[in-house]
């Protein structure tokens, strides 16, 4: 039975068994209060209080489905390998769960996983090898809560209302989503390459890729992803109140099933954590409790490797290991495909695998042709990792940065992210404790192939000699599974002033204490930092020159929209522009305020110019210097032929499109919600801006929709009263349902740089205007 109360329910937060105002007499008569209380505060943020982990999962699954049932259900279809059944084989999935380029490739990829039974086997293993008991209960409850919302039949989202693929789920579906997230940068990255890998003779041979092209493709493996993040943790030596302060600013897709969703989860006496979950996760993945706050950033350590197979003479589906031939395993994968007349037809694809992992024909743009002599297989240690939810639970329970490090080492579940955290004591933490293949430098030096040596040096991607069994990554001391790097080899830095990360490697988390001497598989050292990394370090430096951080200072820092590229290059660009005789364009750039606020004039022109030239090698007169990494390279070169071409092309593009050269950025960078055009500030990676936003350029209009970028933002300040002083913002809002009142409300706030004041303690929740309480019996 579902009851809704619009009255305040302050007592409900103290214990899930207490009746909130509006509870029915029938519930009281049977001696049981509601097992779950969901209190909605401003902007549709649910505060879920429950008596057990299963009940907490139940309330979380129900509330998540209420906001995003269509996205969640689409994910279930994907994970069950049924996209071709419902949507046809040729359309592209949304990319939220793998890199597969077509529905058919996605279905084959996930059906192969399902046929293998790997998720079921991992889910049956006790922690630390499988999900913790509390995680199993959360997953079981999450599925039941999702199903309850489905049964109630109150779906209004036109994206899936009455769709035949809206079906109940099981606990196993929840585990499957966690598994897909674990292998997303790994097996999921090579979904197309695994599906298309075909023995020689069955397809025309592929010409060898030039070695330098492969190296450049390896460098771009993560740089071109639609995910990134900034995080800054500040300790007692650098905050005004002598306590910890955290900024979390993940950059994720604005559309599809990899969005964040905001929630507050409480089991009185056991768990009290607020933040954001990735859709489908039963737990908060980025957030805080009363004394500890954390965020994640995409790490530079590639969580997979390749092995080169030396094939047996005359048999391209057998490979040699220590001189002995091993037969590849043939996987016949069948999926149901919708035909034009609506009927279904089974389609079977043959895939191949080895004891190392699946045979692949490519990794993104790295071509790996299968010849009569060699083939390649992917080694993905996360293919046996169903521990990521254990880590999220452990971080939510941690009280200090020290406890967080212990939790990371104990659970070993993070597949492809760093952790940046702060606590109420005033400690700031950077930790890159993730799941990486056990390939320390000495092992790589012995076992890498010639191609592997180049890719490893450029991007940390090993290509190992599969003909030698001693070149198989083995069990490391302290590792919970074979083949992963031991936890003591990872960089961990705790400081009293600050640490940062903006998706560069561990090396320069704090310039006063560079982290060096770590294995290349973890990341590069003494190498040039991105302009976004430099932007963050410069912003922190500038703030500390003025005085210690406050919570408001950190809010201002992230939305200042300073463009480091503009600060470094616009003066030289103006001189170049005048030399080229481009008239008004030069005046516009000279007057530009060097920010990418929605009202900035000149920002759009600089953006369209700089995107074309940012990667050129001749832009700077002073090259990168590892002894001065925050300030180099610098000194723009106005004689750069590439920059001159780029500026002329940008001026011509805007002029021919009828876009004024001095148009405010927000006139041509916006989203449309409910017929309302909402201007969006921020800019792309190349501009050197923390508030990263990447839009979809439409000639003649501009960036008319955001693809990915700033998503869930939190600034958490500890002030000693166990009610952290926190501001949050979910840029694309809580719900993807266009009929929801929370479809665009926070997007409007983002446009105005307005924050949500978080309500964490009971008295804060009770004081929320328009508080709405839902009580659920079950599961």
UniProtKB/TrEMBL annotation:
It comes from the Bacteria. Gene3D superfamilies: 1.10.1400.10, 2.30.120.10, Glutamine Phosphoribosylpyrophosphate, subunit 1, domain 1 (3.60.20.10), Penicillin Amidohydrolase, domain 1 (1.10.439.10). The keyword Hydrolase applies. One of its GO terms (molecular function) is hydrolase activity, acting on carbon-nitrogen (but not peptide) bonds, in linear amides. InterPro entries: Ntn_hydrolases_N (IPR029055), Penicillin_amidase_A-knob (IPR043147), Penicillin_amidase_dom1 (IPR023343), Penicillin_amidase_N_B-knob (IPR043146), S45 (IPR002692). The keyword Cell membrane does not apply. Residues 1-26 form the signal peptide. GO terms for biological process: antibiotic biosynthetic process. Pfam families: Penicil_amidase. Keywords: Hydrolase, Signal, Zymogen. Belongs to the peptidase S45 family. This is Acylase. It comes from Actinomadura spongiicola.
């Amino acid at each position: 039975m579902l009851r809704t109360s619009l009255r305040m329910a302050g007592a409900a937060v103290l214990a899930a068994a207490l009746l909130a105002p509006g509870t029915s007499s029938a519930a009281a008569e049977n001696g049981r209060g509601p097992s779950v209380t969901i209190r909605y505060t401003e902007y549709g943020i649910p505060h879920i209080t429950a008596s057990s982990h299963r009940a907490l999962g139940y309330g979380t699954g129900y509330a998540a489905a209420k906001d995003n049932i269509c996205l969640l259900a689409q994910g279930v279809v994907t994970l069950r390998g049924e996209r071709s059944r419902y949507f046809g084989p040729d359309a592209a999935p949304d990319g939220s769960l793998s890199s597969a380029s077509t529905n058919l490739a996605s279905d084959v990829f996930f059906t192969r996983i399902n046929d293998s039974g790997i998720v079921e086997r991992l889910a049956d293993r006790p922690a630390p090898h499988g999900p913790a008991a509390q995680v199993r209960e959360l997953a079981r409850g999450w599925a039941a809560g999702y199903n309850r919302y489905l049964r109630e039949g109150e779906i209004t989202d036109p994206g899936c209302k009455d769709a035949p693929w809206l079906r109940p789920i099981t606990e196993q579906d929840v585990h499957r989503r966690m598994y897909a997230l674990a292998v997303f940068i790994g097996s999921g990255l090579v979904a197309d390459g695994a599906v298309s890998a075909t023995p020689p003779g069955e397809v025309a041979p592929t010409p060898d890729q030039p070695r330098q092209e492969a190296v450049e493709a390896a460098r771009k493996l993560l740089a071109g992803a639609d995910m990134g993040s900034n995080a800054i943790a500040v300790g007692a030596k650098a905050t005004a109140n002598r306590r910890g302060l955290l900024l979390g600013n993940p950059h994720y897709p604005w559309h599809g099933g990899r969005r964040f969703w905001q929630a507050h989860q409480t089991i009185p006496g056991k768990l009290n954590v607020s933040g954001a979950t990735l859709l489908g996760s039963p737990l908060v993945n980025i957030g805080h409790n009363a004394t500890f706050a954390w965020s994640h950033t995409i790490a530079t350590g590639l969580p997979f490797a390749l092995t080169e197979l030396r094939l047996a003479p005359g048999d391209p589906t057998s490979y040699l290991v220590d001189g002995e031939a091993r037969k590849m395993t043939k996987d016949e994968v069948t999926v149901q495909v919708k035909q034009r007349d609506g009927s279904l037809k089974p389609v079977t694809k043959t895939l191949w695998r080895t004891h190392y992992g699946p045979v692949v024909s490519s990794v993104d743009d790295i071509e790996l042709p299968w010849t009569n002599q060699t083939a390649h297989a992917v080694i993905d240690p996360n293919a046996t990792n169903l521990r990521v939810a254990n880590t999220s639970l452990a971080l939510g329970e941690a009280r200090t940065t020290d406890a967080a490090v212990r939790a990371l080492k104990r659970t070993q579940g993070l597949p492809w992210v760093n952790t940046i955290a702060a606590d109420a004591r005033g400690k700031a933490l950077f930790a890159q404790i993730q799941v990486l293949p056990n390939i320390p430098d000495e092992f790589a030096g012995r076992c890498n192939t010639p191609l592997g040596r180049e890719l490893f040096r450029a991007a940390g991607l090993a290509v190992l000699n599969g003909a030698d069994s001693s070149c198989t990554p083995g069990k490391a001391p302290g590792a919970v599974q074979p083949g992963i790097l031991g936890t003591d080899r990872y960089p961990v830095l705790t400081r009293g002033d600050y640490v940062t990360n903006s998706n560069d490697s561990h090396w320069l988390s704090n310039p006063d204490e560079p982290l060096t001497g770590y294995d290349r598989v973890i990341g590069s050292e003494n190498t040039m930092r991105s302009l976004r990394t430099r932007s963050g370090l410069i912003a922190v430096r500038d703030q500390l020159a003025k005085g210690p951080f406050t919570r408001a200072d950190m809010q201002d820092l992230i939305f200042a929209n300073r463009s480091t590229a503009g600060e470094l290059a616009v003066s030289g660009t103006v001189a170049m522009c005048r030399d080229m005789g481009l008239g008004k364009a030069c005046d516009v750039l000279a007057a530009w305020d060097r920010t990418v606020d929605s009202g900035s004039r000149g920002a759009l022109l600089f953006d369209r110019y700089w995107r074309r030239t940012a990667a050129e090698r001749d832009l700077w007169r002073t090259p990168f210097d590892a002894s001065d990494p925050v300030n180099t390279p610098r000194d723009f070169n106005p004689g750069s032929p590439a920059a001159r071409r780029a500026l002329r092309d940008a001026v011509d593009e805007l002029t021919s499109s009828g876009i004024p050269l001095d148009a405010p950025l927000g006139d041509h960078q916006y989203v449309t919600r409910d017929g309302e055009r909402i201007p969006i500030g921020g800019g792309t990676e190349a501009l050197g801006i923390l508030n990263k936003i990447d839009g979809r350029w439409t000639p003649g209009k501009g960036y008319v929709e955001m693809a990915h970028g700033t998503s869930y933002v939190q600034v958490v300040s500890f002030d000693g009263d166990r009610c952290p002083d926190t501001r949050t913002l979910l840029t694309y809002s809580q719900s993807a349902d266009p009929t929801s009142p929370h479809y665009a409300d926070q997007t409007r706030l983002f446009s105005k740089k307005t924050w949500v004041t978080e309500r964490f303690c009971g008295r804060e929740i009770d004081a929320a205007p328009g508080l709405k309480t839902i009580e659920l019996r079950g599961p």
